[in-house]
Amino acid sequence: MAKSSEVLLAFNELTQSRELPPERILEALRDALVAAYRKIYNAPASQQVEVDFDLPNGRITLLVEKEVVEEVQDPRTEIALEEARRFQPDAQVGDIVMVPMDPSTFGRIAAQVSRQVIKQRLQDAERQMQYEHYSQLKGEIVHGIVQAINPVEIVVGLDKRAEGRLPRKEQIPGERFQVHDRIRALLLNVEMTPRGPQITLSRAHPNFLKRLLEEEVPEIHRGEVEIRAVAREAGRRSKVAVSAIAPNIDPVGACVGIRGSRIQTIMRELHNEKIDVIQWDPNPAVFIAKALSPARVQGVYLQEGDGPRTAVVVVPEDQLSLAIGREGQNVRLAAKLTRWRIDIKSVSEAARDALDKLYRSEEFADILAEEREVLEQVEALLEKKQAERPLTPEEYRFLLDFVDRVERGMLAQLRAKREAEAAALAELRQGIPEAAFETPLDILGLTPRLIMRLTEAGYHSVGDLILALRKDPDAILSLQGVGPRTMESLRQAVEAYLAEHAAEAEAEAAARAAEEAQAEAEEAEARALEAEEVGEAAPVTEAEAEAEPVPQEQAPEVEAEAATEALPEPAVADLIVAEAEPVPAEVAEEEAPAAPAEVEERPLEEMFSAERLFQTPAEMLVEEESEEEAAAEPSKKKKKKRKKRRYVEMDFDEEGEYYVSRRRKRGDDDWEEW
User: Fold this and answer.
1) Based on the domain organization, do 564 and 639 belong to the same domain?
2) Are residues 266 and 213 in contact, defined by beta-carbon separation less than 8 angstroms?
3) Nearest residue to 78 (alpha-carbon basis) of 94, 89, 54
4) Phi, psi (rounded to 5 degrees) for 180
5) Is residue 161 domain-shared with residue 185, that is, in the same domain?
6) What residue numbers bound the domain in which 643 lies?
């Protein structure tokens, strides 16, 4: 038996060298001793074998399960009664006792088996520990030492006795390493294989640049500056879009550093790769213009449709090559950064393309008519440019203005067309439940041949079929095997489906209406809260205005307005009420304010009847309070200005079709037509 100090020393040395927890090593030793015992004694698998570790005293005991018998026939699984009572004094025949054994008596073969099992178990535990550790570091930067270099990859030694592979495609072009060089790389992927975890590293991935910026720029690490997008061609050029989250921070300046100290450190790490740091902008046009730096951009026109999103960028003649870059590198990186397809044109090229669109497309005939006066001048300038004669800056500005007007007009027309198509589609979808677009055609009871024809034509659901029947039934009628009788059966099946799901469609429409009403209510509440914070009166909705009581002094005015609203539309549209001129102060002082007339109470049917609405009095007196009177406090009523009066006479015109209004000043007997 080895000394206790030697056992502890060996155990601690094994723990430190393998960088494994003690529990994993003890488990490996237990499996090794059990395997050695079964190998030597050929013990059955059903026999229980346990291992007891006493590391402070340096003792390892093996406990084997045996049955107590009077006469031993198989010493591997049986033990005599007298010997069993040495380990368990109350043992009886037929009992099961755990008999201790000394592993040091196993011999050379057992030691060899134990060594192999321990090695295999420790290796498996080490691989599992490596996989768990590096799986958590996926996407982060790891440090290592170059161990081997070959034409296919670079082998990098990492922590935890792990090895990483840096494939050639993930290396920066032109970068060279030597054995024992320290290296930083992005942990790209970790996979578990029979030979252990396979760790793939990368120095060419865009996220490697992103992690370097996070390490070098404290504002990014603290979350004050955010990296919005990264576009990279390793070893050549990269573009990074950043934005500030915290106020009063320049995101570009924070990334570049004082005199470029921070960005130069990253460039040296990336083998002198050029890095453009630009400020992100929520407006795609502005963002695209900044992404094409260092080129100057004079116009960006976004074209969004069914196809890929395209941005037409107009640059000066001398900036075209700079905007495109060497072998298209600058525009390619800008497209990756903004995720827009970018079409760069010079001013003359953009003007020529705009002119061709106007001439070829009948859709832009109205724009062609508007630009008819300048077309000859534009054509003359383009011919001058084609003849390689120089244009003046004023002529370039003229062409640029022409391109701007045409492009904006075209985009406005296309946008209006898409909105009209969307509105038409929404109108067609009315009454169709949303579940219909997820319901297969089998539910309509059609023949398999007809379902196959419809599916091949692109109608995969009941909703698609209903839309096609409403939008273009001839498209379905033109399908092979579809005739008038088949169309009639399709219509009947669709009508039956809609009738069956009409309640569901109404419920969906009601739910949408409720959501819209709730959204309007929340918006009104938000406006009211905002008005209260500013100190203004909260806006009153129509329902609140109807429910709000009308003051006594405003009753005649409200009644007049209600009568006016009840007039026919032509009369209301042409009815104009003019304010009277200000009343002189002398006259206002002499006259006292007239007492409000008593309003006769009548039923609503009589007040708003058609006969009463069209009985216009000869004169209507409308009194309005001045703004100073409305804003003054009750204690200052004596100092208020008197109410302004205006006299308006309503009468029919000569033909008796529309109302006309006449006004007069105070004291005049004749009315003046207004």
Assistant:
1) yes
2) yes
3) 94
4) 75, 5
5) yes
6) 555-594+601-673
Rg, C-alpha atoms of the chain:
45
- Which of 485, 507, 529 is the endpoint of a domain? 507
- Where is the domain boundary, 90, 106, 127? 127
pLDDT higher than threshold 50 for residue 672? no
DSSP strand pairing (341-346 vs 310-315): parallel
Give the whole-angstrom CA distance, residue 596 versus residue 581. Answer: 22
**Do 105 and 151 sit in the same domain of this protein?**
no
Task: Tally the C-alpha atoms within 13 A of residue 186's C-alpha that lie toward its C-beta.
Answer: 21
Question: Distance (Å, rounded) from C-alpha 432 to C-alpha 436?
Answer: 7
- Smallest Cα–Cα separation from 316: which of 296, 342, 343, 294? 296
Segment among 52-61, 142-151, 418-427 with least mean pLDDT: 52-61
| Structural domain contains residue 533 | no
pLDDT of residue 303: 87
Residue 621 identity: L
Amino acid at the residue 545: A
C-alpha dihedral, 477 to 478 to 484 to 488, nearest 10°: -20
Q: Is residue 278 part of a domain?
A: no
Residues 102 and 149 in one domain: no
Q: Is 154 helix (H, G, I), strand (E, B) or coil?
A: strand
What are the strands, taking DSSP E only, across 158-223? 163-167, 182-193, 196-202
CATH number of the domain bearing residue 479: 1.10.150
Q: Poorest-confidence range of 100-114, 177-191, 204-218?
A: 100-114
- Average pLDDT of the chain is 78
Contact of 662 with 670, CB cutoff 8 Å? no
Bridge partner list, 307: none
Helix (H, G, I), strand (E, B) or coil at 441: helix
List, for residues 481-538, the tens digit of each pLDDT value.
888 888 888 888 888 888 887 776 677 777 777 888 888 888 888 888 877 766 544 4
The structural domain count of the chain equals 4
Q: Does residue 478 sit in the same domain as residue 570?
A: no
Residue the block writes with tokens 């969004």? 304
Residues 120, 67 share a domain:
yes
Question: pLDDT of 118-160, one tens digit each?
Answer: 778 788 888 998 999 999 999 999 999 999 999 999 999 999 8
43 within some domain:
yes
CA distances from 436 to 38, 162, 439, 440, 501 (A): 68, 56, 5, 8, 9
Instruction: Supply the CATH number for residue 172's domain.
Output: 2.40.50.140
Do the Cβ atoms of 316 and 298 come closer than 8 Å? yes
Q: Residue 56's domain is classified under what CATH number? A: 3.30.1480.10
Rounded Cα distance between 264 and 270, Å, is 10
Residue 429 has pLDDT above 50, yes or no: yes
Q: What is the pLDDT of residues 431-462, one digit of tens each?
A: 788 888 888 888 888 888 888 888 888 888 88
DSSP annotation of 95 reads -
What mean pLDDT do residues 616-635 have?
Answer: 42
Give the DSSP H/E element, type plus range, for residue 50.
Answer: strand 49-54
* pTM (two decimals): 0.61
Asked whether residue 110 is domain-assigned, the answer is yes
